[in-house]
Amino acid sequence: MLGTETTDHATAHRAALVTEDSAPTAHQITIEHTFETAHRLPHLGGKCTSLHGHSWRVAVPVIAPTLSNDVTVVEFGALKAGIREWIDTYLDHGTMLGVHDPLAVHLYVAKCKVFRFGADSCQTTVDAELLATDLVWPTVEAVAVLLRRVSQAALAALPCAPDARVGRVFVRETHLNTATYGPVDAP
Ligand SMILES: Nc1nc2c(c(=O)[nH]1)N=C([C@H](O)[C@H](O)COP(=O)(O)OP(=O)(O)OP(=O)(O)O)CN2
Q1: What are the start-end ranges of the H helices in the chain?
Q2: What is the E.C. number (predicted)?
Q3: Cβ atoms of residues 140 and 179 within 8 Å
Q4: Does residue 173 sit within a domain?
Q5: What contacts 113, CB < 8 A, 6 or more positions away?
Q6: Is 124 a pocket residue for ligand 1 (Cβ < 6 Å)?
Q7: By alpha-carbon position, which residue is closest to atom 3 of ligand 1?
Q8: In terms of residue numbers, what domain contains 161?
Q9: Rounded Cα–Cα distance for residues 171 and 157 (Å)
Q10: Which of 48, 119, 126, 127 pairs as cysteine with 99 (C-beta 3.0–4.6 A)?
């Protein structure tokens, strides 16, 4: 009978919806933050040589195959607090420079906040800068790598779902220029 077939079809459809996919699945949550920071990239030449500022935006996804006992990947507020504190302390309303940029000394004298990329451990290096030792200039790509490291450290300090990891971190420098950095298998 037509009515019975329709009912059977609907039941099968509902069952398929609640059955686990055969493809691997995962949970993903994302937090975002913005910061106002200047940089310059003299090695690229042209207008990038001039000190200029951007309203940067970062999006940090965290992926986990299963949820924690409190049915979260990680608590949003705690994750945001950790990442925001680092960004607001070291980057917001500051300037990102390459370690050999002669501009740095003038900014220090003027009591400006400076974060140097490419700084290795020496007396003038602050611990936070060691996260960017291998990143010689503050390109958007380098900022994405740095902020993924910051996010990994923030996540590691929090209770979270088993095997939770930071996915591809997204950084926006301008409305037209963005970069992502993270595992190739992450969306
Ligand atoms: N791969 C990268 N290329 C460039 C970077 C970078 O970080 N990674 N950075 C710059 C400059 O910092 C600059 O701020 C952006 O340059 P550009 O897009 O050329 O300049 P505009 O925003 O003014 O672009 P319009 O589209 O003309 O408005 C350069 N390259």
Answers
A1: 2-18, 76-90, 103-109, 140-156
A2: 4.1.2.50
A3: yes
A4: yes
A5: 90, 93, 94, 95
A6: no
A7: 139
A8: 25-181
A9: 23
A10: 119
Assigned domain for 172 exists: yes
Can you list the residues of the chain whose pLDDT is less than 70? 1-7, 12-21, 123
What is the pLDDT, as a whole number, of residue 87? 98
With a 6 A CB cut-off, is 174 part of the ligand 1 pocket?
Answer: yes
Q: Rounded to the nearest 5 degrees, what angle is found at the Cα of 91, between the Cα atoms of 88 and 95?
A: 145
Which SS3 state, helix, strand or coil, does residue 15 take?
Answer: helix
Nearest CA to ligand 1 atom 18: 177
> What's the CA dihedral at 83, 87, 88, 93 to 10 degrees?
-160
51 lines ligand 1 (CB under 6 A): no
Total structural domains within the chain:
1
SS3 of 105, please? helix
